[in-house]
Amino acid sequence: MSRAEILIQRLDAELPVPSYAHPGDAGADLYAAEDVELLPGERAVIGTGLAIALPEGYAAFVHPRSGLAARHGVTLVNAPGTVDAGYRGEIRVTLINTDAKESFRLQRGDRVAQLVIQRVEYALFSEVERLPESVRGANGFGSTGR
Q1: Residue 84 labeled ligand binder
Q2: 66 a known binding residue?
Q3: Binding residues for substrate, per the UniProt record (predicted)?
Q4: What average pLDDT does the structure give for the chain?
């Protein structure tokens, strides 16, 4: 397993640094910097008290926690959120409560999301008159199933 050094700055010294729950996990836990109550259908932007510096050629992706989704219907609005290598501000997550009846209460220090670090390619876009043929062609939504 390769490892990339990610520099972190704690903007809130009382919150834990990102950590992996189990060996081999792809996502490191991020923690909520504030208390929030989400009413049914409500969303909120929540700080994590953390800023990072990624090496060039890497990005971080903020993913929802499956346990929050399964137990409470809480997920991220813009999943996955993208943290570019040049960004140095606080990582913030936009949670939404999809439950139609129950409110959700998040406490400061609760695990709120997962951070996945990935190597990314920088694309060179070349405009052409026509794209090369492929087996799939222009078939889109729903084209692989019934």
Answers
A1: yes
A2: yes
A3: 65-67, 78, 82-84
A4: 94
Residue 52 and residue 55: Cα distance in Å, rounded? 10
Report yes or no on 24 lying in a domain.
yes
pLDDT digits (tens, 9 = 90+) for 110-143: 999 999 999 999 999 999 999 999 988 888 777 6
110 is known to lie in a ligand binding site: no
Domain span at 40? 7-119
Give the Cα-Cα-Cα angle 4, 8, 10 (nearest 5 degrees).
Answer: 160
Does the annotation list 97 as a binding residue? no
What the block records as the tokens of 128 is 């052409």
Residue 139 pLDDT = 81
User: What are the structure tokens assigned to 125, written together?
Assistant: 């876009």
65 is in an annotated binding site: yes
Put simply, whether the predicted model's pTM sits higher than 0.70 gets the answer yes
67 labelled ligand-binding: yes
Q: Enter the DSSP assignment of 24.
A: T
Beta bridge partners of 44: 95
Q: Give pLDDT tens digits for 3-41.
A: 889 999 999 999 999 999 999 999 999 999 999 999 999
CATH of the domain at 99: 2.70.40.10
